[in-house]
Backbone:
DNA sequence: CCTCGCATGTCACTCGGTGTCAATCTGCAT
DNA sequence: ATGCAGATTGACACCGAGTGACATGCGAGG
C-alpha cells in the first residue's frame, strides 16, 4: 500500500492494536482492489471478487468504503484538506494567484512523489466514467472549501460576492487541466511546471481588483 | 411537460405516429418522475413508483432513460450542444470573453424563460448528491466540447496549449456559479445579470494575450 | 388480409449497498 | 488469570437499480 500519508516512522507510534488492525484490513482491501481494477477494468470486477482476494466479507468492505468507487478515489480526500490548509497557511498579504498556486501544488507534489502508483490511479479514474463522476464530486467539494477559505481570507461574503467562488473554481479547473495533461503524457510532463503555466493563464483574473 | 424544446407548433408536423407516441411516453415519464421526485426527494422515490404513476413497465423506463438520474438531468443535455453551437456561431474576431459569455447566456436564458419549473429542477439537482454528480459529469462534457471548439476557433492545439481547456473550464465555472447563486436566491436574482458579473471577473484571464 | 418491424411487457437475473444479529476480539479492571 | 464493555466482523436476508431474453401486440405497407 503506497498511497497513504503515514504521519511518522513506525518506531513507537501511539496507535492502539485495534487501530493497526483496522489499517491493515483497509490496506489489504485497497491493495486487492487496485490490483484487480487496474488489471480488468472497473466494471469487470465485482465487490465479491475484491473481498475474496482480500479475505474479508462483503459487509466489511462497505464498513471501510462507502462505495466501490471510494476504494479508488478515497485517497484523494486528504488532498482536499491539504489544499485548504495550505491556502489558510499562506501569508495574508499574498495575492490570491500565488496563494492558490501554492495550495494546488500540494496535491500535485504528492502525485509527483509516488508517480508510479499515482499515475495508474489517476488514469484509471479519468477513463472510467463512474470513477470520474466521483472525482468530480470531490472537486466540487474542494471548490466549496476553497471558496469559504478565500472569502474568509479576503474578508468577503461568499453569498454576496461572486469572486470567491469563481476564484476557487478557476483554481480547481487549473488543477484538473494539469492532471489531465499529466495523465495524457503518461507522466512525462512535469506536473509542477504545468501548474505554473496554468496559473500564469488564470492569474490575471485572480489578481484583478 | 414544460422543459422540452419543441421545434414548432403542432399544426402538421412530419412526424410519424410512432414518433408522437414515443414522445408521449417520454413526457408522461418525466412528468411523473419530476412530480414525485420534487415532492418526496430523490432517494425516497423508487423507479417502480415512477413507472406505476406513468402507467408503463420498469423495462420501458430504462429504454428511455439510462438511469434514474437521467430523468432529471437529461434536459440539460441539449443545453450543452446549445452552448457549443452558439460559440461556433459567434464572429471569429470576437474576443473569447465575449463569445463565451454569449454562449453561456444560451442556457441561462433558457432557464430564465420557464423559471418556475427550471428553478425546481435546478434546486433538486444541486441539493441531491446523486443528481449533482450526474450534473457535474455533464459539465465536464460541455467543457470538453468547448475546449475543442475554442481550440479550433483560435487555431490552437488543445493537446499542447493549456489555454483552451482553461478558458472552457472558466466559462463552465462561471455558469456553475451563476446557477448556484440563482438557486440560492430562489430565482430572485437575475441570471443574465449574474452571468455578466461573473464574466467581468474572469474576462481578464480569458482575453490576456 | 397478411406480415414485417418496432415498441412494450414479463420474468429472471446480476450486482451494489444496507439492516440485523450473533460471534469474536481488544482493552481494561479486578 | 478472569470477567466485563465496547468495538469489529461474518453470515444472511433483503432492497433497489439496471440488464438480457423472449413473447406479445400494434401500426404500416404489400
Residues:
Amino acid at each position: 500500500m503506497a498511497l497513504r500519508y503515514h504521519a511518522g516512522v513506525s518506531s513507537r507510534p501511539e496507535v492502539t492494536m485495534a487501530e493497526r488492525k483496522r489499517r491493515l484490513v483497509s490496506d489489504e482491501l485497497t491493495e486487492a482492489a487496485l490490483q484487480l481494477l487496474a488489471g480488468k477494468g472497473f466494471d469487470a470486477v465485482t465487490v465479491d471478487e475484491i473481498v475474496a482476494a482480500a479475505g474479508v466479507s462483503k459487509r466489511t468492505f462497505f464498513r471501510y468504503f462507502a462505495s466501490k468507487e471510494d476504494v479508488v478515489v478515497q485517497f484523494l480526500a486528504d488532498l482536499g484538506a491539504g489544499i485548504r490548509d495550505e491556502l489558510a497557511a499562506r501569508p495574508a498579504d499574498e495575492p490570491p494567484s500565488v496563494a492558490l498556486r501554492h495550495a494546488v501544488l500540494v496535491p500535485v507534489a504528492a502525485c509527483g512523489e509516488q508517480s508510479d502508483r499515482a499515475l495508474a490511479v489517476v488514469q484509471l479514474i479519468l477513463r472510467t466514467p463512474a470513477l470520474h463522476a466521483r472525482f468530480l464530486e470531490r472537486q466540487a467539494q474542494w471548490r466549496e472549501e476553497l471558496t469559504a477559505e478565500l472569502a474568509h481570507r479576503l474578508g468577503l461574503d461568499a453569498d454576496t460576492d461572486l469572486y470567491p467562488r469563481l476564484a476557487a473554481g478557476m483554481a480547481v479547473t487549473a488543477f484538473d487541466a494539469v492532471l489531465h495533461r499529466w495523465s495524457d503524457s503518461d507522466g512525462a510532463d512535469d506536473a509542477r511546471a504545468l501548474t505554473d503555466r496554468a496559473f500564469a493563464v488564470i492569474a490575471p483574473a485572480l489578481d484583478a481588483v
About this structure: Chain A has two domains: 13-64, 68-206. DSSP finds ten helices and no strands in chain A.
